[in-house]
Amino acid sequence: MGNKYCYQRVDMSAKTVIVTGATAGIGYVTAKHISMMGAKVILACRSEDKATQAIDNMRAEYSQWVQKRQKAKSKTKNKKRDTVEEPQPDELNLEFMKLDLTSLKSTTDFVHNYKSRGYSLNVLVCNAGIALPPKELTEDGFEKQFQVNYLSHFLLTLQLLPLLKSSSPGSRIINVSSVGHARGELNLENIQAQLSYSRIPFYGNSKLYQIMSMFSFQRRLEGSGVNVTSLHPGVVNTEIDKTYQDYWMKNVWGFFRRTGMLIDVEKGAATSIDLAVNPEYNDVTGVYFSECKRTTPSSLSRNVEKQEILWKYSLECLKDYLDDNILEQIGEDRKEVKDVGENDNI
User: Fold this and answer.
1) pTM (2 decimals)?
2) What is the pLDDT of residues 260-273, one digit of tens each?
3) How far does CA 304 lie from the centroid of its chain?
4) Helix, strand or coil for residue 33?
5) Residue % of the chain over a pLDDT of 90
6) Catalytic residue among 7, 28, 203, 244
7) Other Cβ atoms within 10 Å of 334 Cβ, number
8) For the chain, how are helix, strand and coil distributed in percent, rounded to 5?
9) How, if at all, do strands 93-98 and 40-45 pair?
10) Region 327-336: what's the mean pLDDT?
């Protein structure tokens, strides 16, 4: 529980971190290990029951880890060792706050609730996601993978920018994307499945948009002290296949699991943790990582013209949830933000 993978344990005791989708999978591991370094970690997710159970489990696992560590220290106390004292809080500082990414109102309510508590914000880990559901529109009228994986996180980031800027330099936005982004496309005529829908391509679309928005934020946040990165965690053995309602996909994922083709969640979370805590990344922005290494995302994701088309479309989707202060933070004028579909050039 610590530096087994690509990250090192550092002192995060003065930091506050939000991790979306932190009740299971790599989000759970990410939240736990960052909290183990002393940070205050907000579990932003839908279910209070699941979050409460997750927090209890994290604290129990941490207690067991501390006990093992103390035993190991006692066995070597008379030996000369070159050691670095690592952070070890008395108790994990974890808190649940409700966030339902299928709802733009819930996303905005989360931000209002968060700000009302007077918390600062150093790191935002946009981790929550769904994969390959049947075609479904959210209450806001958007294709579900588009909204959960991308648009609501985009809104969350925009609304939390003032807090991230207040905690700069070194504030971080981390988008958990996927190598599946390489299969994505940007076609506004079918971006909400107006013409057709296929589960894998639309998953790839949502992950593509996360990376494209990273580059758009990078340009607009230059000099602000707020950095933005994105990552592919690896093909991870998580519970995401619970969202698969296709018998064939469940069998494929089950085959991957049985044959050892999936990496464990500890390794899958390592890149997210490293990007969140590593002081070497204080000035790193606009970079895509794959399994803890810098790499180059698809050529489409790097297309500036396409990035700006997506940016404009996204703002139009969210125009009722962005006040003038937020638009000013990103150098936008409300007069330029129109209803979706109002501009024929989009």
Assistant:
1) 0.90
2) 345 578 888 999 99
3) 22
4) helix
5) 74
6) 203
7) 13
8) 45, 15, 40
9) parallel
10) 86
251-272 burial, b at 16+ Cβ within 10 Å, e below that, comes to eebeeeeeeeebeebbbbbbbb
218-235 confidence digits (pLDDT tens) = 999 999 999 999 999 976
> What CATH class does 16-70+87-307 carry?
alpha beta
**DSSP state string for 230-298:** EEE--SB--SGGGG---HHHHHHHHHHHHTT-SBPHHHHHHHHHHHHH-GGGTT--SEEEETTEEE---
How far apart are alpha carbons 142 and 136 in whole angstroms? 8
Cis peptide before 169 (omega within 30 of 0): yes
Tokens standing for 169?
Answer: 């330099």
Pair of tokens at residue 28:
């759970």
The H helix count followed by the E strand count for the chain is 10, 8
Residue recorded with tokens 């936008």: 332
203 labelled catalytic: yes
Q: Which two tokens mark 199? A: 């589960």
In tens, the pLDDT along 57-95 reads: 999 999 999 998 888 877 766 555 544 567 789 899 999
Q: Which among 231, 233, 229 is positioned nearest to 266, based on CA atoms?
A: 233
First vs last C-alpha separation in the chain: 48
Report the distance separating Cα 288 and Cα 240, nearest Å.
Answer: 22
Q: Which of 273, 290, 160, 297 is nearest to 217 (CA)?
A: 160
Amino acid found at 276? A
Q: How far is it, in rounded angstroms, from Cα 31 to Cα 54? A: 10
Strand order in the sheet with 123-126: 93-98, 40-45, 16-20, 123-126, 171-176, 226-232, 287-290, 293-295
Place of tokens 């950095």: 227
Sole residue written with tokens 């969640």: 265
Q: Give the pair of three-digit tokens for residue 342.
A: 């109002």
